Amino acid sequence: MGAQAANAISGYTGTVFFADLGEKTVKTFPLDRALAENFLGTRGFAAKLLYDYAPAGLDPLSPENPLIFATGPLTGTAAFGPSGYFGTVSPLTGGYLDSGVRGHLAANVKLAGFDAFVITGKAKTPVYLWITDGTVEIRDAAHLWGKDAFETDTIIKKEIGLPEIHVAAIGPAGENLVRYACISSDLYRQAGRGGAGAVMGSKNLKAIAAKGNGAILLSRPDDFLRLLKELQLKINQDAEPLRSEGTLWLVDSMNRFGLLPTRNFRCGVFSGSKQIDGPYAKKKTGKRNAGCFACSLMCSNRVTVSSARYGTFSIEGPEYETTALLGPNCGLGNFEEITSLNRTCDRLGIDTMSAGVVISFAMELYERGIITKTDTNGFDLSWGNAEAMESLLDNIAYRKGFGGLLAEGSRLAAKIIGGGAPKYAMQVKGMEMPGYDPRGVIGMALAYATADRGACHLRAWTIYEELMGSLSPQATEGKAALVSARQNRKATMDSLGICEQVGLLPIFADLLSSAVGWDVRTQYNDVHKKLLEDFQINGAPGVGARIYTLTRAFNTKRGFSRKDDTLPDRFFHEPLLGAEGPGPVIHRDTFESLLDDYYRIRGWDMDGKPTKATLEKYGLTQAVKDLY
Amino acid sequence: MTGLIVDAVKCTGCMLCVLNCSFQKEKIFSPSLARLKIVRTEADGYWNFTPTVCRLCDFPACVEVCPTEALVPRPGGGALVISDLCIGCLKCTEACPEGVCQVHPDYVDPMVCDFCGGDPSCAKACPTGAITTISKGKDK
Question: Which end of chain A is more exposed for a tag (fewer CB within 10 A), N or C?
Answer without folding.
Answer: C
